[in-house]
Amino acid sequence: MKSDITKPSMRFDPVTLEIIWSRLGSIVDEAATGFVRTSFSSLVREANDYAIVLTDADGNSLTQSSFSIPSFISTLPRTVQHVIRMFPRETLAPGDLIITNDPWLATGHIHDVSTVAPIFMGGKLVAFSAVTSHVPDIGGRVRSSDVPSIFEEGLQIPMLKLIDKGAPQAAVEAFIRANVRVPDATMGDIWGQGTAHEQIRNRLLELLTETGLDLAALSAEICSRSERALRDAIDALPDGEYEYRMQHDAFSSPLTIQCKVRVRGGDLHVDYSGTSPQVEDKSINVVETYTYAYTAFAVKALLSPDVPNTEGSFRPLTVHAPVGSVLNAQHPVGTGARGQIGHMLPPAVFGALGPILGPRRRAEGSGNCVVTLSGRHRGRQFAVSSFVNAGQGASAERPGFSALSFPSNLGNSPIEIIEAEAPVIVNGRSLRRGSGGRGVHPGGDGLRFDFTYVGDEPVSCSFLMARRVVPPQGTAGGEAGLPARLEINGELRDPTSVKQLRKGDRIVLETAGGGGFGAPQ
To answer: Which intervals hold domain Hydantoinase B/oxoprolinase (predicted)?
Structure first.
């Protein structure tokens, strides 16, 4: 028997809303579990570099998988909205699956592949599911911060149908397979995304059939409540304008992130005017959607962390980054290393709002280092990326966490997986004791990662490392953390360019420690 929860004369009572909202969350979490278990890539299985989102028919986000990367929470719904713009709803059909890795339409760099599927019920489009994950390889040069343009970064997949009315498009798969180093693993993860879409569709239709739910009405209610929660939290802040300035190591001269936050009633605006221009010969540029995503994450984490993320959660927020700046870079600059800059945005927002946050005030931290190895070993091609996390900034309430990927939530790649997928021996991985800045509450410690390359053939190895020159700063008198560093065979090296490793080469990298809070006693 169908319930009457969506009769026009009724409102969603809190208990019913909580039950239905939780069921929507369980739908995407179940799909996420299936995706992780079927994934070919340790980037998904071990490092958590993926996300799944369910939206309504207009592309408004309703819920996302529990372990979603924070940036994906905002970028994936934007991708759905681009799908609606480029494939009008009347042209979509059951069984369609749209794919892209366009940084400006999706997650900000081509190494993430995103897929979107329309969900129909009784011939009516009622929702979209969206999945993204960092694929094992996308071709081009080995991912590093030294790639000057997107044309050298790898295969660009325009927004097109991978499946058309249930029929896989063999030509699309052939183009992808022909341009990547590990085609079976890459396509395995992409088809795993397709399975996740199928799970979401089946479970959502079961829910809608069981309850007679009007998903559009539920979406309006959910988004309204989450919007109200954030507006109330913003309204509790004192009106005013608050600024913070950060610097990134960059290459020839430091890049500047200038952040101004304006609070007016229940609205909050973040303006990055004064930020450095885009970098024409490096891949550290950030596209607008990624800038918005990590700004939104910072605001939501500070002010309304307990309310589930939906489209409404971010309506009180507006973000401006000047066109052509490093935070609103334009095609065709490289964006593959966009996390080096994008991960600085939450600390910038935290720093700007710090004077009015009280116990929520936090020092700067560092995100992670990405080590990528690519080459041949025993007659086969391999491409492996591993994450090495760093120290979080301390807060007014507690020390920073050590070995944490913040503001992202990527996992440290397990040693056993690294050794199984690449010809390396890990000599040790441990906390870099004392690397967190001193303070009343010290910053979190970074990691020390020590490995030796043991393959017979030379391979390419890159390191996405930030905070080498300008370490995470402390606040309220706390000291800065120690900067990151890289050694190869005992020699201090600049990680910017791709290195050629030969058998016996030993690499030691140390990630930065977080800033401390409060003057040390």
So the answer is: 13-520
